Amino acid sequence: MSPQQKPQFTAQEYLDWERGQETRNEYFDGEIYAMTGASRKHNLLCGNIAASLHGQLRGKSCEVYTNDMRVKVSETGMYTYPDIVAVCGKPEFEDAAVDTLLNPILIIEVLSDSTEPYDRGAKFLHYRTLPSLQDYLLVSQNECRVEHYVRQGDNRWLLTEYRDLDETIDLDSVKCQLLVREMYERVAGQP
Questions:
Q1: Are the beta carbons of 87 and 103 closer than 8 angstroms?
Q2: Is 30 inside any structural domain?
């Protein structure tokens, strides 16, 4: 008896189906993957970071989106929902639905126990093929730790790690700063 094959979907079949769903699903290589819900800490971190970026980007040519803006990695065909994504200049979308961003400049993922290996590994491999991407942040929800990857030319990324609440993260791509203390406000006992 042969193992049962999973159904394969085209990107267009995925988009047509996904746009009618109440929950979010990622897509890669013909398969659809359901996304899980987020914890309180995850939501606080995303809200704190998005609020800071939104305030700093007000009146500028950049836009920041939270977890419901789908991103397509054209080079690999992956469709995903980063926790926070920003674009500067003219946003480019896959089609007239204006729900699938093609040119993010900044992507931020808040790590959970179940997503950390994927966000740090395979997902970042996909993201690195985005020519527009300049900054990638991995934010731990279990401890004060932010990993900031900055593009250095075509194929090099510089990693800086932040573990102190009094540190400031410079995001040159969007001309913003994130204060680690503000990112972690009300998370893990922080005031």
A1: yes
A2: no
